[in-house]
Write a structure and sequence with these properties.
Immunoglobulin-like, 5-stranded antiparallel beta sheet, binds 2-acetamido-2-deoxy-beta-D-glucopyranose, signal, cell wall biogenesis/degradation
Length: 257
């Protein structure tokens, strides 16, 4: 091979390698084993208002493709928003060809200390377990199975549009629920900047919510977010106008890649 062509190929290959690792090193990893059940019915109505704080999942954009995670997978809420590809394996109840489906973590499946972790206490530590919505379960297996063995792995979250911020609190306490997060889907740290303040670090409240104890009324607000998995940092400038109020949801143009 011509020497210059050879070096061009090397450059292309190494650029491809860098893109592969920097964009989604967490995705496409090895499949891990877990088990899965479902909660609620075909409407997925009971799965709304989970421990991540997304509220109504139709309004927040997640729909019925969601799951509650056992304690070890939930990771104190830092797994909220992460996306998982799930396949039914090694069960006569799996649909033919072990089709895969993708779900977003929106809830915790709490431990049930009254039941053995191999007989009903599926979400007890140290088990990795997914409690899917019934529509998600029905994509991979016959729901009559009740519980199935699965393989799962992280995948990048494909979202339309920017990150959304749902506001709660008051003029001295801002509580923000972070939704529609793309890429790794998760948040490690977050800061807010009022139009008349510097950056103020927010603390993790619960699920996918972060808070600042500051007087921010009457100021437009920008947010700085760092992903839990990739440590990528992005800025959502002027995500909320100076007229912001609790109870409202604001859409930004920023999202993780
Ligand atoms: C605020 O958060 C940033 C990023 O996480 C960190 O580097 C910095 O030390 C924090 N500042 C304070 C005052 O805690």
């Amino acid at each position: 091979m011509d020497q210059s062509l050879y070096s061009k190929c090397l450059v292309i290959l190494s650029v491809m390698g860098m893109i592969g690792t920097s964009s989604a090193a967490y995705a496409g990893g090895p499949w891990r084993r877990a088990s899965a059940t479902f909660y609620g019915d075909e409407t997925a109505r009971e799965t709304m208002g989970g421990a991540c704080g997304y509220g109504n999942l139709w309004n927040s954009g997640y729909g019925a493709a969601t799951s509650a995670l056992s304690t070890v997978l939930f990771n104190d809420g830092y797994s909220c928003g992460q996306c998982f590809q799930i396949r039914c394996v090694s069960s006569p109840n799996c649909y033919y060809g072990s089709p895969a489906t993708v779900v977003t973590a929106t809830n915790i499946c709490p431990p049930n200390w009254g039941q053995n972790s191999n007989n009903g206490g599926w979400c007890n530590p140290p088990r990795a377990h997914f409690d899917l919505t019934k529509p998600a379960f029905m994509k991979i297996a016959n729901w009559k199975a009740g519980i199935i063995p699965i393989s799962y792995r992280r995948v990048a979250c494909k979202r339309t549009g920017g990150i959304r911020f749902k506001f709660e609190g008051n003029g001295y306490w801002l509580l923000v629920y972070v939704m529609n997060v793309g890429g790794a889907g998760d948040i490690k740290t977050m800061a807010v900047k009022g139009s008349r303040t510097n950056w103020i670090n927010m603390s993790h409240n619960w699920g996918a919510s972060y808070q600042a104890f500051s007087s921010l009324y009457g100021q437009s607000l920008s947010f700085r977010l760092t992903s839990y998995t990739t440590r990528q940092t992005i800025y959502a400038w002027n995500a909320a106008p100076a007229s912001w109020s609790a109870g409202q949801t604001y859409k930004s143009n920023a999202n993780f890649s």
